[in-house]
UniProtKB/TrEMBL annotation:
It comes from Sphingomonas ginsenosidimutans. One of its GO terms (molecular function) is 2 iron, 2 sulfur cluster binding. InterPro entries: Rieske_2Fe-2S, Rieske_2Fe-2S_sf, Ring_hydroxy_dOase_asu_C_dom, Rng_hydr_dOase-A. SUPFAM superfamilies: Bet v1-like (SSF55961), ISP domain (SSF50022). It comes from the Bacteria. Keywords: 2Fe-2S, Iron, Iron-sulfur, Metal-binding, Oxidoreductase. The keyword Cell division does not apply. Residues 72-179 form the Rieske domain. PROSITE patterns: RIESKE. This is (2Fe-2S)-binding protein. Its cofactor is Fe cation.
């Protein structure tokens, strides 16, 4: 189930039109009411403090979600070319992600089968056909096979074919590489075909990683996730940055198992705008926000898409891998300027505003306040998501 080779890279595409989206995405967009007609319904829902601060809940999530199911480790677009490798740390494990010459994505533990040394120590993408251990120079192919042992005549009985790299079963889903951290058979029961199709239509699969950055946050992964599931904070927390571009409504949400898709009209949205010009950049009119199982966040912007993987490292520690995905590299100085400015802005907004909000919330939660968090009608997706997640615990 590795679809990478089947996806033509949309080199010609610079923006996303309505017709580029899946039927399901188009149908959802057509359900968004005009800004003036949007109705919000109040909601009464709470969650206990312990889901963000308790060891018991953290352990249950680890056992029933992160160690049981395939979980996201990186974007396939990080390795656009066959014959390349990148080291990433995911969920505390040193991993190697390779794209073989045959164009297959593979995930390995980044550890030599001689004495465990890391084969790749930095986090840059390397275009190379093999990996040489820095310690005693054992050499591996990108398919994980041990292909060379220095002074092999000195080993009695070391079988090359028994000391290949430890591979984790993996699959590319909508451009996101999912791996089975426990090394067992791949469990993709929570990955939904609609998400695969939607992400591919958004250009995440086959897109270009313009920038990526890692954030180490002192907050529970769900506290980091919440602002990407609700619009309540947007006009408030982001008042000085992007808040003015958004209104509290209108939006349409759809749930696919433990996956949520929300699409919202931008300020002044009217359904008739969709049909004014078939070539219009649809993300000038609407914004998509996804939470995909269990910890992938996708937010669209006019000229790029943000993808984040929120990896729990502790009850109140989360490492976020942020990727800015564009249809391709900038081909003009003007495009480069737009990408560069966008990257600076989105990092400022996500890191300086959303992640900051998560960290200051966690401080209060760790002090036991509030005893339960409370959610309103503009945050219904948080509750929808928690309800879906809780069925797995
Ligand atoms: S630890 Fe890798 S060759 Fe010795
Ligand atoms: Fe936000």
């Amino acid at each position: 189930m590795n679809f990478v080779a089947d996806i033509a890279r949309p080199a010609e595409r610079r923006v996303t039109r309505l017709s580029d989206l899946t039927d399901s995405q188009q149908e959802a967009i057509r359900r968004i009411p005009a800004e003036k007609d949007a109705v919000n319904v109040p909601l009464a829902a709470t969650r206990p403090n312990a889901i963000f601060t308790g060891r018991e809940r953290f352990d249950a999530e680890q056992a029933n979600i992160f160690q049981k199911h395939a979980v996201p480790v990186a974007l396939a677009a990080v390795l656009p070319e066959p014959g390349s490798v990148v080291a990433i740390e995911a969920y505390g494990k040193p991993l190697l992600v390779t794209r073989t010459r045959a164009d297959n994505i593979k995930v390995f533990i980044n550890a030599c089968q001689h004495k465990g040394a890391k084969l790749v120590e930095d986090c840059a993408v390397h275009k190379q056909g093999r990996m040489v251990c820095p310690y005693h120079a054992w050499t591996y192919g990108l398919d994980g096979k041990l292909i060379g042992v220095a002074r092999s005549d000195m080993f009695e009985g070391v079988m090359k074919d028994q000391r290949g790299l430890k591979e984790l079963p993996s699959v590319v889903w909508g451009g996101v590489i999912y791996a089975q951290l426990n090394g067992g058979p791949l469990d993709v029961s929570q990955l939904h075909d609609q998400i695969d199709a939607d992400f591919t239509a958004l250009g995440i699969h086959g897109g270009y990683v313009y920038g990526r950055k890692t954030f180490d946050l002192a907050a529970n992964w769900k506290v980091v996730l919440e602002p990407f599931l609700e619009g309540y904070h947007v006009q408030r927390l982001h008042a000085a940055s992007i808040g003015a571009l958004f209104v509290d409504a209108p939006s349409v949400s759809d749930t696919f198992g433990v996956n949520i898709r929300q699409v919202s009209g931008r300020i002044g949205y009217e359904p008739a705008m969709l049909d004014e010009d078939a070539d219009t950049n649809v993300h000038k009119l609407v914004t998509h926000a996804y939470t995909a199982f269990p910890n992938v966040v996708v937010v669209t912007s006019q000229y790029y898409t943000s993808v984040m993987i929120l990896m729990p490292y502790g009850v109140d520690r989360t490492i976020v891998h942020y990727y800015m995905v564009t249809p391709g590299p900038a081909t003009t100085p003007k495009a480069e300027e737009v990408f560069e400015r966008s990257y600076d802005l989105i990092i400022k907004v996500f890191a300086g505003e959303d992640f900051r909000a998560a960290q200051i919330s966690q401080e209060g939660l760790n002090a036991g306040v509030p005893e339960s968090t409370v959610y309103c009608g503009l945050e219904e997706n948080v509750i929808r998501y928690y309800e879906a997640l809780e069925t797995l615990l």
